[in-house]
Specification:
- There is one protein chain.
- By secondary structure, the protein is mostly helical.
- Among the domains are: about 45 residues, no CATH class; about 55 residues.
- Helix content is about 50%, strand content about 0%.
- The chain has six helices and no strands.
- The N and C termini lie far apart (about 50 Å).
Length: about 200
């Protein structure tokens, strides 16, 4: 085989050309729908960038969000941008959440757990409640989305999977490397995912 040639068949090129074209069309359609919602939000007087930033932040622990906000405000003060609590808080009404609000929130939390490959048994709501059902529905949707993201070799969480039993306290266990299962070793290139604050919300035109 000469330089620049490939042993991949013509049929394979055609197959993936069709698959990529289909996924590109889906992406463009979804992007267009997203832009339409952003425009409607702006027309209604809502800041879509703030909402998008809040939705991303919601994936983190509340204590982490609070610390990042404190750091952000402190950085503003260091750069002589003075903002008081009265400038930030208040000026809006927050009515008590409705059952529909609770159901929506439960579904969103379940989806987040599903895409994070969390356990189905971690459903925090009482069995038999609407929120429990909505969380579970979101979890299943999240698992489906995760499988699509990872591709054909994806392995979603087993719904019957149980948490591993804790080892006896008097028997020390070797450290297990991330993603490998080998004691004391971390695979090359694997980096712990730290929590970072988005430098700025996305610019939406």
């Amino acid at each position: 085989m000469t330089k620049g040639q490939s042993n991949v068949s013509h049929e394979t090129w055609v197959e993936y050309s069709k698959l990529l074209n289909a996924s590109l069309r889906e992406l463009e359609e979804a992007s267009g729908a997203h832009r339409a919602v952003v425009k409607k939000a702006k027309a209604a007087g809502v800041n879509p960038n703030a909402i998008l930033a809040a939705l991303r932040a919601k994936r983190k622990e509340e204590t982490v969000i609070a610390q990042e906000l404190r750091d952000y405000v402190r950085a503003l003060h260091v750069n002589r941008v003075t903002i008081s609590a009265n400038d930030v808080y208040g000026g809006w009404e927050t009515p008590a959440p409705t059952p529909e609000d609770d159901a929506y929130d439960a579904e969103q939390r379940g989806y987040q757990a599903g895409t994070g490959n969390g356990l189905r048994e971690d459903n925090p709501f009482a069995a038999g409640s609407e929120q429990h059902a909505e969380w579970d529905r979101g979890w299943r949707k999240g698992q489906e989305a995760l499988a699509k993201q990872l591709g054909d070799n994806a392995k979603a969480a087993n719904p019957s999977r149980k948490r591993p039993e804790r080892p006896p306290e008097n028997k020390p266990q070797p450290a297990v490397g991330r993603k490998t299962g080998r004691a004391g070793k971390t695979p090359k290139g694997a980096v712990d995912e730290g929590v970072t604050w988005d430098e700025a919300p996305p610019v939406v035109n």
